[in-house]
Amino acid sequence: MASVQSLRSVKRLGIRLHPIFPVGIVATWFCVATLALLGPMPLRAAGSRMDKLAIFWKSREDWQERSDSIRAAILTGAKLTPLPERTPLNAQIANRRVRGSYTVEDVAFEASPGFYVFGNLYRPFPSGKRVPGILVTHGHFTEDGWYARTRPENQILCATLAEMGAVVFTYDMVGWGDSRQVQHNVPDVLRLQLWDSIRAVDFLLSLPEIDPERLGITGASGGATQTILLAAVDGRIRASMPVVMVSSGYSGSDPCEDGMNIRKIPGQPDTNNAEIAAVNAPNPLFLISDGIDWTKHFPEEDFPDIRRIYEIFGATQNVGNKHFPKGKHDYGPDYRQLAYQFFSHSFGMSPAPIIETAPIESQRDQAVRNWIHLNVAFPADEKESSGDLVHEAYQASRRVSRAVWDSGVRVADWIAMLW
Question: Are residue 146 and residue 69 in the same domain, yes or no?
């Protein structure tokens, strides 16, 4: 599937222009060969991609104006200006399972009339007090026998946060898992998905035990894109943790991340994911980066600028980054431990456990449509229908290699990605 999508991507990049294509190949491989002969050399550009944006971070007032512009650009680009009417959610909750110190339930609610969001709700048990609410979004991960939402690593994350005292709601991307009313690759999927996330906040707030002052969100890869976009446009989010995604040089290859014009600001330089992640300042923000994808240079290229934005609020204690040079592109155990610590500290929850003990539920229990039957059509293909990690990596390398035409330095970036 990835190969088919890659071929389509090549066509979209204009490779059919035969007089240009051979020149591009020759130029690229000439640069590769030259660098190989020269041996090890510095691979980073002299200036950060964020440098041209620094004029907007001189004062709290400057940043407030810039962040308002970013927020407006996201909502306008996503065709969510004005915001749609918040119609009744008509939430249905079923198949409650008690798992020791927490419960799990299956949920469906209407983001807009007739269009459903599907997910699993984890709650502390017993609970007689107001508690934080945390959204967990998933990326374009595939694993045989599981929805992306129901994969063991996602279940463990949600269950452990519930054991620590939070209500957790994890939900499908549009076109994935139970959400099969439309395919994931429809042109406006970013709009649908961002509205789903806004309504997911509404759903959490409809639960009587939720403390509205303690709402958070986290997710990895494409789920991290959902994390930063929701935190940027919805001020109800008070803590966010994007994992292995945020970079000023890459915004994602999937239509749900980069398929609509949400980063272009009239009369100002375009924004990027690193700057978008800071829009929720001075609220707590923690970012995970790793050494095998486009976040490999995040600690030196982007994080200092995000921290600088927090400085103007006097809130550098609220922002952090942990880099894993040998980390994976996932939401693995090391990353989850940091999530537990981050939300525990941000929301006053129980301490992070030393060992994760949550059992893995069956796909049958986790699949919402096994338990909630709706009188609506689900015409989309039953296969997870979007770019997998191979496709994302392919697109990333294509985008960097395209930049060779603008600057020779970008060849080094591309080779660094391949290494």
Answer: yes
